[in-house]
Amino acid sequence: MCVNYVYDNETYKGEAPNNKYQNTKGEIRIANIDLDDPAIRNTGSIAVDLGEELESQGYHVWRADVPVLNEAEDKLFIGVGIRRHDLTQTVPVAGRGGSLSWATTDERDLGTMTYVVDYPTLRNPKIITSTVAGTDNLSYRTMTQYVGTDGHIYQAATSMGSGHQILRISKSTNEYDNAYNFDLNAALGIDDAGIRAFRYINDGIGVVLYTRGTVEGGYIALVDLNGKTATKITTDYEGDDAFSATLGQFQNIGAAGDYAYVPVTPSGKDGSLYVINWKTKEVIKGAKLVNSSGSHYIGAY
To answer: Model-level pTM?
Structure first.
């Protein structure tokens, strides 16, 4: 399954000094791709609409990511990134590449949102919203939502390390289970974790890569989503800020049998493949990973 998001209009209209804000509109495009017998089996699109109330406050979708089918294979869940334009501003400002855009604000009073469409038709879009977390659920090129062994969907509420929760979408209702909340901070006994990558493995056990807001470095934890506990995995590179810099686009934690595979390579430095037995919690420092200047490993498959 492949999704992408395309903007349809600018964030303002009119010429300076008479610019007027307008909400960003866009379309999520979906393609159902068969890799066994290569072909595009179906396509769909979602005209993004957060509703007049939210859009009048400057909220808009900026990214769509991490699609996953539910256990019944009749619903597709698509993570979305939500931003908010700063409506106290009166003129657009220079953004990336010098192009003009309406300024954004970090102020947000909005739960985590997910788009849902019917499968395989890829029609009838709707938005479901968590009341437990208020962070995006896309993590930027890193898969962060999975169907668990129990049939529920487990979803890291994070966008490039800004969140510390894992949410659950009920298999029976296809809505957020707002009675469930895995908090990595609480599980580790800290208060500054930011999830950068998440991999569900089996029986409620998963692996999380995270950074911390007050301590340099990148870290690994084995998490129990049923017991809501976490065990920090010690590595030789965890205090190295060159390692945390590699987690911004870490793309996959490998899993096979009883083991999870995490390549740990600070940018521009040699590292190692860490092999974690998710049943016994035994950690093996495996193959040496030879690196080159400005490079790092981004995942294991």
So the answer is: 0.95
Q: What is the DSSP letter of 266?
A: -
56 has a pLDDT exceeding 80? yes
Measured distance CA(153)–CA(147) in Å, rounded = 4
State pLDDT tens for residues 97-123.
778 899 999 999 999 999 999 999 999
CB distance 102 to 83 below 8 Å: no
| Contact by Cβ (8 Å): 199, 253 | yes
Q: Please report the beta strands in 86-217, taking only residues with DSSP state E, as ranges in sequence order.
A: 93-94, 100-101, 104-105, 113-118, 126-129, 145-147, 153-157, 165-169, 182-183, 193-202, 205-212
CA dist 194 and 215 (Å) reads 11
Q: Which of 113, 169, 139, 98 is nearest to 249 (CA)?
A: 139
Provide Rg for the chain, Cα atoms.
20
β partners of residue 59 = 84
